[in-house]
Amino acid sequence: MKHHSLLIIGSGPAGYTAAIYAGRAGLEPVIVEGMQPGGQLTITTEVENFPGFPQGIDANQLMMDMRTQAERFGAKIISGTITRTDLSQAPYRLWTDSGDELTADSIIIATGASAKYLGLDDEQKYMGQGVSACATCDGFFYRKKIVAVVGGGDTACEEALYLAGLAAKVYLIVRKPFLRASQIMQQRVVENEKIEILFETNTLGLYGENGVEGAHLIYKKGEDGERKYDLPIDGFFLAIGHRPNSEAFRPWVKTDKTGYIMTEGASPRTGIPGIFAAGDVADPYYRQAVVAAASGAKAAIEAEKYLKSL
Ligand code: NDP
Q1: How many CB atoms lie within 10 A of CB 51?
Q2: Which of 212, 238, 264 is the last residue of a domain?
Q3: Looking at the annotation, which residues are catalytic?
Q4: Which of 5, 29, 216, 224 is within CB 3.0–4.6 Å of 22 for a Cys-Cys bond?
Q5: Domain span at residue 297?
Q6: Cα of 91 to ligand 1 centre, how many Å?
Q7: Residue 293 backbone class (left: φ over 0; alpha: ψ -120 to 50; beta: rest)
Q8: Relative to the CA of 119, which ligand 1 atom is closest?
Q9: Interval 32-47 mean pLDDT
Q10: Does the C-beta of 205 come closer than 6 Å to ligand 1?
Q11: Where are the alpha helices (DSSP H) in 118-209?
């Protein structure tokens, strides 16, 4: 069993930024980096909206730089995924997937969220080559091109509207005969001339030589009508929801019905002394690297205050 003063769970922008701040404050933070070191950004290509990089920056490079910066201030990084916790009293106890036990006086939960995918092999095949789960991150690469967004909720409508401002044409692929999104979002989508809704349609696969060139779709109406066809597109955006990675902490911290950790107001405090949440695991709305980084900074500042008060 190893005891640490401050454990940071997760190695995305929130986790690394928390480590930079905590390291500079002399807290000797330890990051448990999880299954996807660098977090969600590592599945995109170029980041053009992170301030400070006027020419854009390779997403993996950005995350490696954050990691190096955290290590420069003394952060230690260990591998493992936290699968179980006991946050009933301090020192808090955590277990990794390999059964190791860690204890900590303070914890910053920065485990992020994972976009849901349809589960098609082609999604993996074309990841970063036409498949994306973030229009704000990747939409720019589809200026004047043809894209499809999958989903019928508020996120899908928002992504479709965002992409309609850039792309020549946006198809919204909806499996039901109606949208689930709020009325106002539905109205905006319906009124947008660039967006065409394909109701009762599912995706069977994607095709293309060097990236996505189209989608194999199936249109199903009622019991009998069924039609398979190919739709030429340049980009395929998933917007069927996100899953916050909060399972291991859920018995203790408060979450909303989807599992996003609920913090006190705009602070990263979870309500459990010394336990803070930062980044996408506590953010159902913005889901941006720069927002996650900022919340990591807030969490580290709170953790410093808490640890000094002990
Ligand atoms: P939702 O769960 O609301 O919607 C998911 C959509 O994806 C649904 O249309 C669903 O279809 C579809 N879907 C799910 N799985 C599949 C699948 N395997 N194949 C095809 N389609 C699928 O998620 P959102 O991310 O849109 O929203 C999450 C929450 O955040 C909501 O409460 C939403 O209101 C909120 N939000 C609010 C915003 C705002 O106010 N501006 C912006 C974004 C989100 P089906 O309907 O058939 O289940």
Answers
A1: 7
A2: 238
A3: 134, 137-138
A4: 29
A5: 2-115+242-309
A6: 38
A7: alpha
A8: 18
A9: 84
A10: no
A11: 121-125, 135-138, 154-164, 183-191
Shared-domain flag, residues 7 and 93 = yes
Question: Is pLDDT above 90 for 64?
Answer: yes
Any atom of ligand 1 within 6 Å of the Cβ of 151: yes
Among 118, 150, 154, which is best to mutate for testing ligand 1, by the most ligand atoms less than 8 A from CB?
154
200 and 298 inside one domain:
no
* CATH number of the domain bearing residue 181: 3.50.50.60
> Can you tell me the distance from the alpha carbon of 124 to that of 120, in angstroms, rounded to the nearest whole number?
7
Q: What pTM was estimated for this model as a whole? A: 0.78
| pLDDT of res. 35 | 86
Examine the fold and report which residue of 194, 221, 238 is the final residue of a domain before the chain moves on. 238
Q: Give the pair of three-digit tokens for residue 174.
A: 């909806």
Is there an atom of ligand 1 within 6 Å of 244 CB? no
Residues 13 and 67 in one domain: yes
Res. 245: pLDDT tops 80: yes
CA 276–ligand 1 middle distance (angstroms): 27
Looking at the fold, whether 179 and 221 belong to one and the same domain comes out as: yes
